[in-house]
Structure prediction request, 115 residues.
Amino acid sequence: MSTQDVLDHHLDAFTAQNLDECLVDYTDDSVVITNMGVFRGLDEIEELFAGLFEEFSQAGSTIELDEKTIEDEYAYIVWHGETPDNDYEFCTDTFVVEDGTIHRQTFGGKIEPKG
Prediction:
């Protein structure tokens, strides 16, 4: 699978909030680095996505992809979204894809709590 294929699968699975399909894109050697901590391996990455899906499944939640760039094994996205709890004003993920899976991922974002 190409970097494009892996990223498209990941975005489709995330949008559908399909945790099992999201995890197909990772292995026990995968690492996701965020401002909320570092998540290593499938168990920790599953916890990260389960929490995100819980938040984004709330009524009125939105998410929009603003930019997608692929360069060899690297994929970069910019997005924004909103949930009843938070305003995701500017968010970015960078993915390193190896052997058809996400080997490394970073996330950064300006997230403003509502209320």
Observations:
- The two ends are 43 Å apart (CA to CA).
- The mean pLDDT is 97.
- The chain has one domain: 3-113.
